[in-house]
Structures are given as C-alpha cells and as structure tokens.
Amino acid sequence: MKIYGVALLAACFLLGKFLGNLLGKLININNDIGGVGFAMILLMASSIYLRKKGWLIPETEKGVWFWSAMYIPIIVAMAATLNVKAAVSGGFVAVVAGIVTTIICMLLVPVLSKIGRNNEIPKT
Amino acid sequence: MEIIEKIISKNGLVFAFLFVGIIMLFSFWISKKLLRNKIPGVAIAILIGLALAFTGDKKGMADIPIFAGMAILGGSMFRDFAVVATAMSADISKIKQAGLAGIISLLIGVTVTFFIGAIIAYFMGYTDAVSMATIAAGAGTYIVGPVTGTALGASSDVIAISVATGVVKTIFTTIATPLIAKRIKLDNPHAAVVFGGLIGTTSGVVAGLAATDEKLVPYGALTATFYTGIGCLLCPSVFYLILKFLGF
C-alpha cells in the first residue's frame, strides 16, 4: 500500500528533524541543525536496506515518489508566499551572489576534471 | 461569486493545488513554445511565484484570503517533507559511478559556493550569521536556501532573497553553460560529472548541458542530484557553525 511509503517518509522526516534539533540543543543553538539532511540520509539508508530485504515493493515506493514529484510545485507555492516586497532591496545581492558563485564554480571544472581521469584512461 | 469564495476559503489547500498546477502548466508552455526550452520551465514557474508574491505583503499572495491555502502548500512542513522524499531517487551505486572526481567536485562545489556567497552577502549588508548562511545556501540551490533559512529562523525577506539567488543561478547556468563550455573543456562525460557536482542546480545543469551537448546531460544530472541533499545537510549545520565560529 502506498501509505506504507508515506509512513516511511514521515518516520525518516520526524527522526531527522529530531536529530537536527537534538544536535542544535547539544551545541546550544536552539535551531534545527541539518534536520532535513539527516532525514534524507535516513530515507536513503532505510530504502536501500528495505530493498535488499525485499520489503520495499514498487507500490510502497510510489507513496514516496508522489511527494518527491511534488517538491517543485511546493517550492513555487512557497515562492508565492514569501515577503518579496521587503526583499526587493536585496534583489541585487541575489543577482551578484547567484552569478559570481556560479562563474567561480564553472572555472573550477577544468581543474577538478583532472582528478581520476588519468587512472581511468591510461595514457597511450 | 459569494458561493465560490466560500468554497475556496473553506478548501484553501485544494484550491492551491489547482492554482499551482495552472502556474506549472503555463510556465512549461512558455518555456517550450516561447523560449524553445532555453530557460527551464521550473525557473519560470518559481519566477512567476515570486512575482505573484508582490500582490500581498508579509505572507506574499497568501495575504489575499482566497489564496491563503498557498501558505499551507508552500509552508515549511510540506516543503521539507517533499525535499526529503527526493532522497529516494539518490542511488548509492550511482555515486560510485560518479567516482572520486564526482564526490570531490560535489563537496568543493557546495563549500566554495557557500563561503563565497556568504562573503558577498556580508559585503552587501547582510552581516548576521543567519542571513549570511541563508543567502549563501540559496547560492547553492533555491531549495537549500529556504531549508537552511527556516531551520535557522531567518526572516521571510531573507528567505525570498535566497530563493531569488538560486533562481538567478539556475537561469545563469542555463544561458552561460553553452557559451563557456569550450573554455572550461566541458566536452566529455568526465567533465560533465564534475560540472554537475560543482554547480548543483539540477534544472540549470540539465538545461545548460542540453544546449551544449545532449549526450552530456545524464552525466551532469548524476552528480547534481546529490547537491541539494548535501547542501541541506552541511549548510544549516557545519557551515553555519563555521560562520558563528568566525565571529559573525
């Protein structure tokens, strides 16, 4: 049943958030420190484990796939409900930060491309 | 009219599904027909979302009663839930396929982007650690930004800036990739794997590579899919703490 997939997702989500908040508490910052990231790792790990055991059937997975496919529409809804009027003054930051970071990363492509390449393709 | 308003206000979330569906349909139509897939439909949809937010104030268009459901659909609970669900498509065997260069480029991509983004945010007047981290995370992808911002308690306008930063990156990547490809030797699968890891915005990487050489698309997407997950893990935790540690 699809709900098993949704329930698995919910379990990973809540446990991840719990770990995030626990970590925040431990280091005295009362925030959620990486909870979504923990939840993603939990979901990856549990789905691999359950697949190996043969317990994760496609029907169950569909419950997770649905939510996975919903994330772009949800981001659109989120974008429409942000305080953009107050953010206009920061619009320039968005353009500068978005473009500068991208250019720098693009320029790193030829540098990092060298890694592992020589091992895979022996020089002739 | 009164009846319609009553139905919508009582079923806000359902109306939001319909409304966002229409935005998506419209955005992908524009992307395909008017822009010949030069700019991904996803980026257009988010831009339309941001533009619609101008119709309201603090809560964007959700300030208008009939659109109140948009705040439920776009709230942090559904958003984080859906983002976590995307981890399902991340296949561990694929990361092995990407190899060492793929993993290193992912880590360097997320790290370099975050800290350069944070420096830019700082020099442009966002000097507190939470705002810096949120905007810098947005320079990663438009998902890492709001996830980080919500986790750290950033204000809605800073989160809006982080989303806009991510959207700028997506559009810029789409346009710039085919122009810069030769110069950065982006002409083989190995370089595409590295490129995907460094840039990370999946929609931008896919659209940019498609405009460069369609054969490279799957290689770039391979690493880019992991970027948001790694960003959501590192930005609100280790990276934020480093900013704190540095005294911001």
From TrEMBL, chain A:
GO cellular component, one term: membrane
Keyword Methyltransferase set for record: no
Keyword Transmembrane helix: yes
Membrane-spanning segments: 34-51, 63-82, 88-109
Key words, A-Z: Membrane, Transmembrane, Transmembrane helix
InterPro entries, sorted: Maln_transptMadL
Family annotation (NCBIfam families): malonate_madL
Name of this chain's protein: Malonate transporter, MadL subunit
Organism annotation: Maribacter arcticus
Automatic annotation (TrEMBL), chain B:
Gene Ontology MF annotations: sodium:malonate symporter activity
TM region positions: 12-31, 37-54, 66-88, 100-123, 130-152, 158-180, 192-212, 224-243
Keyword line: Membrane, Transmembrane, Transmembrane helix
This protein's record includes keyword Membrane: yes
Domain Malonate/sodium symporter MadM subunit N-terminal: 4-245
Record's keyword annotation contains Transmembrane: yes
InterPro entries named in the record: Mal/Na_symporter_MadM (IPR004691), Mal/Na_symporter_MadM_N (IPR018402)
Protein's name in the database: Malonate transporter, MadM subunit
Organism, scientific name: Maribacter arcticus
